[in-house]
Design goal:
Structural class: alpha/beta
Helix content: 25-40%
Radius of gyration: 18 Å
Strand order of the largest sheet: 5-9-8-6-10
Low-confidence stretches: 272-277, 281-285
CATH superfamily: Nucleoside phosphorylase domain
Largest sheet: 5 strands, mixed, barrel
Number of helices: 9
Order of helices and strands: EEEEHEEEHHEHEHEHHHH
CATH architecture: 3-Layer(aba) Sandwich
Length: 285
């Protein structure tokens, strides 16, 4: 069983990559890939960065070269619910996208998430994960740009449980949906609902959307007032990264113990036409 684990930043993969081996990316378009066998699952950990074109390019490469059975978006997230603790784990069950008109739900993705999490593995996957790690089902709001949480809270429907905001989940969910691959998204909380990460701290990527240590240092040297926020975020990220490592291991165990159900799904998936995939992609344009 192959699980492709996509994350935007290297810090998110720090615990997942332990004891893994490096794999080469495509010539002229290198990006960090590492392989690791855990129980009966092969983890393909990939750092995508924040650029949407790059995310699409990386996804297509991994799909062709590694042929994953499952796609997992794994990273840090900001809590939009109260009483969240740093490192809390939330598994996506509903997907929203923040537009100029407000938060819009993607019902196809939400329905598909429900199907995978509650029927594919002979029972609710969240229930099985909760026996191994503390995880909640929640709603993910993907942002196209920075926004204050006070504004985001007003856009989330009242029935959305444990809402979390991030920047890349929806794009990976769309790609996995088009490829007809089981998709999961999990976030570890790095900032609570009353904590806004300064917008400037997101300006730490290079022209390809990849995390750049030099840009991060330059930013802090030019804006020393950001240092306290940066240090706090670093502490929170260390806690969240550990939670993500535990979550991925737990998911690998659950998936590895359900090979027959997964094999049945994959057999049915293989017989579907490319034309149907084209229709899927049109729904997101």
């Amino acid at each position: 069983m192959k699980i492709a684990v996509f994350s935007a930043f290297p810090q998110e993969l720090s615990h997942i990559r332990k004891d893994s081996v490096s794999a080469d990316g495509p010539p002229g378009r290198a990006f960090p890939i590492s392989l690791k066998i855990y129980r009966e699952a092969e983890l393909i950990a990939v750092e995508t960065g924040m650029s949407i074109p790059r995310i699409e390019s990386v996804f297509k490469y991994v799909l062709c070269e590694h042929r994953p059975d499952i796609v997992l978006s794994c990273g840090f997230g900001g809590a939009l619910y109260y009483r969240a603790d740093i490192g809390d784990l939330v598994l996506a069950s509903r997907y929203f996208f923040m537009t100029r008109e407000g938060a819009i739900e993607l019902p196809q993705l939400s329905a598909r998430a429900t199907h995978f999490q509650r029927s594919l593995w002979n029972g609710p996957i969240t229930t099985r994960l909760q026996k191994k790690v503390a995880v909640k089902e929640g709603s993910f709001l993907t942002l196209s740009q920075w926004a204050a949480k006070s504004k985001l809270r007003k856009e989330i429907p009242r029935d959305a449980e444990y809402p979390v905001c991030d920047r890349e989940t929806l794009h990976l969910a769309r790609l996995a949906y088009t490829a007809n691959l089981p998709f999961f998204a999990i976030r570890a909380i790095t900032d609570r609902v009353d904590e806004d990460i300064p917008e400037e701290l997101f300006q730490v990527t290079d022209e390809n959307g990849m995390y750049s240590l030099s840009r991060s240092l330059s930013l802090l040297l030019s804006r020393p007032s950001l240092i306290p926020d940066s240090l706090a975020l670093g502490r929170h990220a260390a806690i969240a990264a550990k939670s993500l490592g535990e979550a991925v291991k737990a998911l690998a165990e659950v998936v590895g113990s359900s090979r027959m159900a997964m094999r049945s799904f994959l057999t049915g998936r293989a017989g579907r036409s490319e034309a149907r995939s084209g229709k899927r992609e049109d729904r997101f344009r």
